[in-house]
Structure formats: C-alpha cells, structure tokens
Amino acid sequence: MKKTLFFALTALLLLIAAGEGNRKPTVFMIGDSTMANKPIKDGAPERGWGMMLPGFFTEDIVVDNHAVNGRSSKSFINEGRWDAVLKKMMPGDYVVIQFGHNDEKPKEDRHTEPGTTFDANLRRFCNETLERGATPILMNAIVRRNFKAPADSVVSTDDRLQLSEVDESGEGLILYDTHGAYLDSPRNVAKELGVPFVDANRITHELVQGLGRDESKKLFMHVSPKTVWAIPDGRVDNTHLNVYGGRVIAGLLVDAIAEAVPALKPYVRHYDFVVAKDGSGDFFTLQEAINAVPDFCKNHRTTILLRAGEYDEKVNIPPSKINVSLIGQEGAVITGSDYASKKNALGDDYSTSGSASCYIWAPDFYCEGVTFSNTAGPVGQAVACFIGADRVVFNCCRFLGHQDTLYNWARRSRQYFRDCYVEGTVDFIFGWSTAVFDQCTIHSLGKGYLTAPSTDKGDGMGYVFHDCVLTGSEGVKAYLGRPWREYARAAFIRCKMDSHIRPEGWHNWGKPEAEKHAFFAEYGSQGAGANEKARVKWAHTLKEKDLKRYETSVVLAGSDGWNPLTLFSLDD
Fold first, then answer.
1. Domain spanning 444-572 has what CATH number?
2. By C-alpha distance, which of 456, 453, 499, 457 is closest to 476?
3. Which residues of 503-531 are buried (b: 16+ CB within 10 A; e: fewer)?
4. Is 167 or 561 the better-scoring residue by pLDDT?
5. 324 has pLDDT over 80
6. E strand or H helix that includes residue 470
7. With contact defined as beta carbons under 8 Å apart, do 369 and 307 qualify?
8. Are both 25-150+170-267 and 285-410 of the same fold?
9. What distances in angstroms separate CA 11 from CA 2, 20, 277, 344, one per listed residue?
10. In terms of Cα–Cα distance, which of 67, 72, 99 is closest to 84?
11. Domain boundaries, given as residue ranges, for the chain
C-alpha cells in the first residue's frame, strides 16, 4: 500500500512539475485606480494603464492585474488582496507595484507615511515576492494633471507670471506634482533592496508637461455632458485616464519596465492600434481600427493587434488602407453567418460575393494568426474571406466554412498562404487570382472539390500548392479540383494526400472543352490519395525540370518582382 502511494505521489509531482514547466511567466500588477481594470458597460471610457498593458506583450507573457480603485498599500494588504497574489505567484514571475495616490489620503484605513509605514509596506511586497523566486518592480505614482499652482508656490506670486497665461479655470502653463515624498519611497526602497525601479512619475510628468495644458486633457477623463452614455453629465477628472491616455502611458511604462528588467524586453511589442472586446485596446471592433488607418500611407506600415475573441462583424478593408499588418492573438476570430441565398436589407440575395465575413481590397496586406470563419453551415455558398487585393500574405491563419470558404476573387491578384489551414466542402478554394499555398493543411469536411480555379487564358499560374497536407473527415471523398472556367490552372507539388482524394483526382465540371484548355498537374504526390496511374487522362504529371517555374518567387513575381518569401527569415 505504501509503495503504491509513493508511486502515485511521485507521478503527481511529476505532472505538477511538467505543468509548471509549460507555464508562461505572469506579470502581476498591484496598485490603485490609475492602474486598475475598469468596467466598459455603456461605453464607459475610463481605463487604468495596467488594463491596457496586455496589448504590449506577446502571448508568452500573462498579465494578471490585481489593482483596485481606491486602494493604498495598507488597504491592499489588510483586505487580503496581497495574500491572493502570493498564492498565485511562482518562480520566474514579476510583480509591478505602484501605490501612492491613496496612501496620501487622511483616511485611517488607507493612510501611510512616506519614510515609515509606506516604505514598510513596499518592503513587504518586495521581500515576499523575492522569497517566491519572483521579481518585484517598484514604481512611483503617475502624475496628476495639475496646472494650478499651489498657494505656497513661489511661482504663484512671481510678477513674471503673466495673467494671460492663466485660463478661465485658473490653470497656467506649468505642471505641478501633488505626490510629494510619496514619490521618493519606491525609489529609496528599490535602492535599499537592489530591486528594479521605474520612475513612472517622471515619465508621465514629462509627457503631460510636453503636451501642455490643453493637449494633455486628451489623456484624462475630460468628458463633455451628453457625449458618453455612461457619463451623461460629463466629467472633469485630472487623475484618471481615458482609453487614449491608458494606451499612451502603458506604452511608455512597458518600455521603462523592459529597460529596468531586460529579461522582459524580448516580449514587448508595440502596435499602432489594438482591438479588444474586453476594453484593453483602442477599439472594440476591427472595423473601427481599419477606419482609423491613414489612407494611402506609403511610408509606414500600420500594425493592428487583434486580441483573442470572436468578432462577429462584416469587415471591409478598402483599397485606400494600404500597408496594413493584422496580427491575431490565439483565439482571434473574424466571423459571420451570411450566405448567398440569404436576403439582405433590400430583400435581395446576398449572392456569393456578398456573403463574406471579411473583404480585403487594400494591397500589401499582411495577416498572421487570425481565423476567418463563416458559420452559416452547409447552406450553399458562404464565404469566410474575400480577397480583391494584390500582394497579400497570410501566415498561420485559418479559413473555416463549407462551400466557397476562401474566395481568391481578383484577377491579376497575387496571394501567398504560409502554414495556413483551410477547410470546406465544395469549391472551398476558388477564384481568378494566382495563389501559392505553402506547407498548408487543406481539409475536406464533406464530399466535393478542393479547388475551383477560374484562371483567365494566359493569366498566371492559378493555384500552386507546395508541400501541403490534404486531409478529410471520415467517409469523405473529394476531387483535387474542377475548372470554374475553361483555362483553369492548379498544381499540387510534393503534397501528402490522404485516402479521401478520389483516384481520378480531377473533374471536368461537365465541360469537355475544359479538358483541352485547363491545366491540372501534380508532382511528387504522396500518401493513400496519391494515384498517378488512376488520374484522368487529361491531367498532367510535372517533371523535375518544370519545377523552377512553380517556385513561389517565380509564380508571384509579376511585373514588379514581388517575392513574399523575403518577409520570412531562413530559420522560420
């Protein structure tokens, strides 16, 4: 019995150790309302800078924000909030510690004194973090937007201060700090214990003073009456940040954190816009972010992070929004449920082209880690992604649907798909474009056809699949493709084909003329679905000498020599 128990405990410890080995480092945040997560109901615009921080780290870092409105270092401990963080903390984690705003207040349950009780609480946070093998990061409080000189200020009575410099609210041109000695305690404790320190007050003071009296209002909760549903009477608040302020300050502070703790620097990312359903970004919807992209921005690539979540919206990226990079976190899905025979607002059919969940018209679009989905089901044509742009790249993306999942619509459009997943039933990769699929998985959900190219005569190579894996659901039988138009072209090169691929491989779609003009080919097919001898007589088997013209850099070169492979390092 004891021996059995010993082995059971040993196995359990090994499982725990294995789980911890795969655990991502966590950045815990403890502090007050200037750092805290905020409610987003009815468009509430207040944000703590810590709420926006996840949009500045890769997914290899977890941000766990425990900051709470109104808490001081004293009340955070007394309410058991610090103990809750300690229970979750593991070796290799980080704790960002920022108090001061509420420690200043005279309330007995919050007040601490700099140099004594405030410092003692900061020491406790640091020492107990270090005991658990984690790294404490001390910060002082961010600045209040205070352009009113205190009564005892020399400047307030200086004859050189011109009255014209003071506005109707009594604000001048100089920013005054209100935190006093509470700014020194984190610095002093950090120096005493040898732990990282970030001078958040200096960083934010320079930001606000640099923007000036009027422009700095854009960072804080200055809300006009009857403009925000959540705040009908408006609000003038120089302590708390809005969406823009939260993002700007989080961006500055994450860089300062990475400087203080170099181990975090490789995980820091900056994006022009962040889209998040939980309010941690600039926008709640992707379309809002797309609308904010400058038109015809030739000298700057606009980067958009799409945080995890299902975005049920019909996204349209117009031709003027050039040079956009859309990066998705794991679980970022653009979804819709329109289909060809569904009625639109005018009572007409959506049609195949109108059924898409996402439209891409802008050239030089790059997308990574995003899922494009149409959930209409097996109801006929229902497009997940419609591509009408040239020089488009998808890396590690997913395209989910049934019939007509991926519409490579535009003539003379060049598209590159790398390490992507596409699923469907009938003609689920179709259109006029020239597209290369490199190391992708093509999955047949039901009987049908993988491709339906509509290549124009003499126009490009149609579809080229390099080193792809073709899979199918149980019991499914599918063709590699059929010609939507007579001069359709498709080639599968070194692809592994499961048994769901029909021996004959290709179908003529009832168009005998297409057998003369279409060019469907294979080279080096492998697996149970590879059956060169059984293929239709009008299909082609490529020779090794033919492969040069099927290389990605050749197929997609066009007249401008475009080569999407230059976007990827040789080590990828």
1. 2.160.20.10
2. 499
3. eebbbebebeebbebbbbbbbbbeeebbb
4. 561
5. yes
6. strand 469-472
7. no
8. no
9. 14, 14, 40, 59
10. 67
11. 25-150+170-267, 285-410, 444-572
- Give every CB contact of residue 274 below 8 A, 6+ residues apart in sequence: 52, 55, 247, 280, 281, 282, 283, 304, 305, 307
Place of tokens 């709420």: 51
pLDDT at residue 14 is higher than 80: no
| Mean pLDDT in residue range 211-222 | 97
Per-residue pLDDT tens digits for 530-549: 999 999 999 999 999 999 99
Enter the tokens of residue 46: 């207040």
- Which of 342, 429, 420, 332 lies closest to 377, judged by CA? 342
Give 383-421 pLDDT, tens digit per residue: 999 999 999 999 999 999 999 999 999 999 999 999 999
Strands of the sheet with 220-223, listed across from one edge: 46-47, 235-242, 220-223
Digit-coded pLDDT (tens) for 106-134? 999 999 999 999 999 999 999 999 999 99
CB within 8 Å of 263: residues ≥ 6 apart: 135
Token look-up 């596409």 returns 422
| Residues catalogued as catalytic | 404, 427
Q: Which residues of 272-397 form beta strands (DSSP E)?
A: 273-275, 302-306, 309-312, 315-317, 324-328, 332-336, 358-360, 365-368, 371-374, 385-387, 392-395
pTM score of the predicted model = 0.93
Tokens of 367: 């997308």
Please tell me the distance from the alpha carbon of residue 331 to that of residue 322, in angstroms, as a whole number. Answer: 25
Query: Do the Cβ atoms of 246 and 49 come closer than 8 Å?
Result: yes
Domain 285-410 annotated CATH 3.40.630.30: no
Mean pLDDT of the chain: 93
Identity of residue 348: D
Counted residue by residue, the chain has a size of 572
Please state which architecture CATH assigns to domain 25-150+170-267.
3-Layer(aba) Sandwich (3.40)
Q: Write the pLDDT tens digit of every residue in 490-508.
A: 999 999 999 999 999 999 9
